[in-house]
């Protein structure tokens, strides 16, 4: 039996008291509220990659899978990220477009949870964004057969070198047909603020079934 590295008592003692910063109100528009919190997270020197979000999908064998992706746009009523269309996440979205997003800003005792529907963005939008990526990231999109079995690190490096030789730095790199964006149109957006004694604040925007307008409600923690 392996030597015990960390005890149950040590894990259970991993507890901290949250602050007194309350969440009394939010703007009526959830996207305005989100933009405000994202800006504050970006300006917080402790938060690493404020636009990083945990994407959860349902696989073909009914297993929930999660991974971190980067938010790249808030427009047209949704949240946009880009990925390989042959990846596990893309295959899962093609089968079931219901997804969730989570922005865990632990350093600020905050998180935003979003449930919504993912759809591909237009090819033009994917082209436009791809053109703004650093050259190395563009080459990486060609080199990586994302989510496929990889025999060795050397194989990946060789694929990268081959793509780099084909499109040297300084030349225009075309967007791979297998790479592009998804926009998640939210059904509900929940803002969570940690509070003392676990009396956290939870404010949730939900679309009304009749008008499609946003309704803001407070929930028990």
How far is it from the N-terminal to the C-terminal residue, by CA? 40 Å
Number of helices: 6
Low-confidence stretches: none
Q: In which range does the helix fraction lie?
A: 25-40%
Q: Rounded to an integer, what's the Rg over CA atoms? A: 21 Å
Main pleated-sheet profile: 9 strands, antiparallel
Mean pLDDT: 94
Detailed description of the structure:
The protein is built from six helices and nine strands, in the order ααββββαββαααβββ. By secondary structure, it is of the alpha+beta class. Strands 1, 2, 3, 4, 5, 6, 7, 8 and 9 form a nine-stranded antiparallel β-sheet that branches. Strand 1 (52-58) and strand 2 form a beta hairpin. The protein is globular, with a radius of gyration of 21 Å. The chain starts with 7 loop residues before the first helix and ends with a strand. The mean pLDDT is 94.
In brief:
By secondary structure, this protein is of the alpha+beta class.
Topology:
Blueprint: H1 8-12, H2 30-43, E1 52-58, E2 64-70, E3 73-75, E4 78-84, H3 88-95, E5 98-105, E6 110-120, H4 123-132, H5 135-143, H6 153-166, E7 179-193, E8 201-207, E9 214-219
Antiparallel strand pairs: 1-2, 1-5, 3-4, 4-7, 5-6, 6-7, 7-8, 8-9
Helix pairs in contact: 5-6
Task: Considering the chains and any ligands shown, give keywords for the structure.
221 residues; alpha+beta; 9 strands; 27% helix; globular
């Amino acid at each position: 039996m392996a030597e015990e590295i960390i005890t149950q008592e040590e894990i259970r003692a991993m507890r901290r008291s949250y602050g007194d910063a309350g969440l009394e109100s939010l703007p009526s528009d959830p996207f305005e509220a989100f933009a405000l919190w994202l800006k504050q997270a970006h300006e917080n020197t402790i938060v690493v990659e404020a636009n990083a979000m945990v994407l959860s999908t349902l696989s073909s064998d009914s297993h929930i899978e999660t991974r971190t992706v980067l938010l790249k746009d808030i427009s047209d009523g949704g949240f946009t990220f880009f990925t390989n269309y042959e990846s596990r996440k893309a295959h899962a979205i093609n089968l079931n477009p219901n997804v969730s997003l989570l922005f865990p800003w632990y350093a600020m005792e905050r998180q935003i949870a979003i449930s919504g529907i993912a759809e591909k963005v237009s090819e033009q939008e994917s082209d436009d964004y791809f053109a703004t990526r650093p050259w190395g990231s563009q080459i990486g999109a060609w080199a990586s057969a994302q989510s496929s079995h990889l025999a060795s690190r050397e194989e990946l490096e060789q694929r990268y070198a081959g793509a780099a030789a084909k499109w040297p730095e300084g030349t225009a790199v075309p967007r791979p047909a297998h790479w592009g964006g998804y926009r998640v149109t939210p059904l509900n957006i929940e803002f969570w603020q940690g509070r003392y004694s676990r009396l956290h604040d939870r404010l949730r925007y939900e679309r009304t079934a009749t008008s499609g307008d946003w309704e803001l409600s407070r929930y028990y923690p």
